Amino acid sequence: MTHNPYNTQSNGLPPSPRPNRRQNWITMMGVWVIVFLLVWNYVRSNQPSPLHTPDAKPQAVTPRGDLMQDERETIEVFREASPAVVYINTSDFGRGFLGLNVLEIPRGTGSGFVYDRSGHIVTNYHVVQDADKIVVTLADQSQWEARRVGIEPDKDIAVLKIDAPADQLTPLSIGESNDLQVGQRVLAIGNPFGFDNTLTVGVVSALGRDIRSMTGRRIRDVIQTDAAINPGNSGGPLLDSAGRLIGINTQIASPSGVSAGIGFAVPVDTVNEIVPELIRYGIVHKPALGIVAVDDRLARRIGIRGVLIDSVAENGGAAKAGLRGTLVDQRGYVRQLGDIIIKVGETPTYSLVDLKDALDSYHTGDRVDVVYIRDDRTANATIELKVIE
Predict the structure, then answer these.
(1) Cα separation of 194 and 231, whole Å?
(2) Does the pTM of the predicted model rise above 0.70?
(3) 210 given a catalytic annotation
(4) 12, 83, 325, 347: least surrounded by Cβ within 10 Å?
(5) 126 is catalytic
(6) Choice among 111, 126, 269, 339 that is catalytic
């Protein structure tokens, strides 16, 4: 027999390893430990814990009793007024890839309210400014594409029209703003951040504020309120405790862009004066002196502080009062400098915006005292205000 130094079997394969009893015992013990732990954990989890009470039940409900009087009034105002508040979505049209497809691009949202059963909707001008498409969602969630009827950017007011049936339209009750008092309760309804029919409550914080519209013009006698007004509330109604419209929520003063407790509403007396004109004519007929003014930037460049008259309308009040415009020859040389208006009534007019703001206090047919400079001398005139288209 030949000695095999590698201790292989006759077939050339290594011999089979002998069973390791100790290793098998350890494996079986491990399995039993795992089983024990699983069973123990199951039993333990089904045993009552000192922290748990198996027979715990809901607490009995305590009857709340009647709502407070002011709560009932607020609920009633919201119930009556909310059907008049609308949600406004705007979008623009653009071209897709390679300009082959027309795309509708969402632009913004805002609020508004039903003005009458003819389908007129009132909102802020800045809500619908330059939008290609405007969709109005009523309180019943029906949607209607709107058309612009008229805009007054200087007062941030716009009127839209939808073709909804009259029985789906609930107009707001119109109040007045000239008798408001600081401290009286107000309610704002709108769609802040797209959350429709949101109610916030506050008080009239101040009256007689002036704010600037997007055109830089002054909006007078604005209502200040601490009722929360956020992006999306613009164009929505501010109501008094009787549910009457007293203003249109339009701006906030906030470093963060969200409500900081200082909101502003265009007074309803201004709204009720402008909206009928927009419905009738599409524009607001404003009383005017009957002049065309030189652009303020050009006037400043030649050292003029005031409103320089470029031309005078032939049949306007300024022409009848003897005011004159600027004469320029064919080569562009100024041969006669026009009159420079520096005061209207009691208001200094250092710019065209000042002049327009001053005329806001008057109506067509009023006669107004004007102070102007001609040839370095101050003169006065009384001018009858007429309508301009």
Answers:
(1) 9
(2) yes
(3) no
(4) 12
(5) yes
(6) 126
